[in-house]
Amino acid sequence: MRFGTTLAILSFCAAAFGKVYFHETFDDDSWEKHWVQSTYKDDYGKFKISNGKEFRADPVKSRGLQTSQNAKFYSISAPFDEAFNNKEKDLIVQFSVRHEQNIDCGGGYIKVLPPNIDPKEFNGETPYNIMFGSDICGANKKTHLILSYKGKNHLIKKEIPTEDDTYTHLYTLVIKPDQTYSVSIDNVEKASGSFEDWDFLEPKTIPDPEKTKPADWVDDEYIDDPNDKKPDDWDEDEPQYIDDPEAEKPEDWDDDMDGEWEAPKSENPKYKGKWTPKKIKNPEYKGKWIQPEIPNPDYFDDKEIYVYDSGFVGFDLWQVKAGSIFDDIVVTDDAEEAKTFATEVMDKIKAEKEDEEKVAAERKKIMDEKNKRAAKKAEEMNEKRRKLERENHPEAYADEEESNDDSEEEMEETKEEEKEEVKEETKEETKEEAKEEEKKENVKDEL
């Protein structure tokens, strides 16, 4: 009894707390022990570990798996710590990607693979359970979400946006046992719904093959008006265009040189085209015939579409311009663990952006100072050039010198005039102040 109770509690705890089946941050060299480069092709592109072109706020945490060669296919995979069946559990796939090369055409998605693959033979035809992440090529930019069901890959029927800038972004997929899903980018939900957003199952009903449209069924809504007759003067043989009757052959037209002259065409005022009777409502119209539906004998409401046996993650990509950095990969059935990892990644992303903004500000400051120095140097060079030209060609600058002398004399005269005006104003103010003082003294004497 006690053993059974203990076992039940342990089972409940395991289900309640969940488990992390795969977690990779590439913070050290241990990744080399379990990531396997496919040898299916000889010319696959090479992955390398990098924290990017620029210095990051934390160069260790910013390390990731980077594509390094342009116009290449890439194929690499790594096993889970243990195989994972997500029946009656959440399945959460999370990773970050940074397209610092300003990607123009290439994949940025991850694949979740079954446990029985050969990593050395991993390629684009290898069966997978889930394909999830960004896919960008020109104006076509979306987040892929493809789920496998009974050996067939099903693309979601709705468009999910993606990010195509040069910053790091966190992609999160959650699949639940009730066959609902959600997709988030940087902890912001971008799509959610049910598995009806894929065409996994056969339709519930199909057209009844035993039913056909009755021979006397009228589905023409309009018919020709039997009382409408073509007018007697309606000539269907009149052409739409005729020779312009007002056009005349130019006097200088030479048939031998210019060829036979042809009058330009103009609209034929008598043209009416083919006559057709007007339409009226069909009194026999019954509407569009719709074939009756019957239950589909092949329909099966599968409640376990969401269930996968998974054992690997992998990157199977094509990139025209390399440089994408993949990092912070998590596969778990524990929503709280995924949130904890996501918070850590978002803190890293925030620090990276702040670091980039700081670097950008410093670069701008350096560039502004450089531009100022360049402008000052250019002005100094221009002044030296002008000075040299004056010395070598004084006659060319004689008028300019005289004009400058005249300007200086005018400025001196103006200064003198301003000085005299100030003196006169000061005298007047002194006289007024003296009068005010005299008035005050007279008032005191009277008192």
TrEMBL record:
The keyword Transmembrane helix appears for this protein: no
Subcellular location per the Swiss-Prot or TrEMBL entry: Endoplasmic reticulum lumen
UniProt superkingdom: Eukaryota
Record keywords: Calcium, Chaperone, Disulfide bond, Endoplasmic reticulum, Lectin, Metal-binding, Repeat, Signal, Zinc
Keyword presence, NAD: no
Gene3D superfamilies, per database record: 2.60.120.200, Calreticulin/calnexin, P domain
Signal sequence region: 1-18
Region (Disordered) residue spans: 199-275, 347-447
Binding positions (an alpha-D-glucoside): 109, 111, 128, 135, 316
Pfam families for the chain: Calreticulin
A Gene Ontology cellular-component term: endoplasmic reticulum membrane
Basic and acidic residues biased stretches: 201-216, 347-396, 416-447
Disulphide linkage map: 105-137
Sequence similarity: Belongs to the calreticulin family.
PANTHER family tied to this protein: CALRETICULIN, CALRETICULIN AND CALNEXIN
Name of protein: Calreticulin
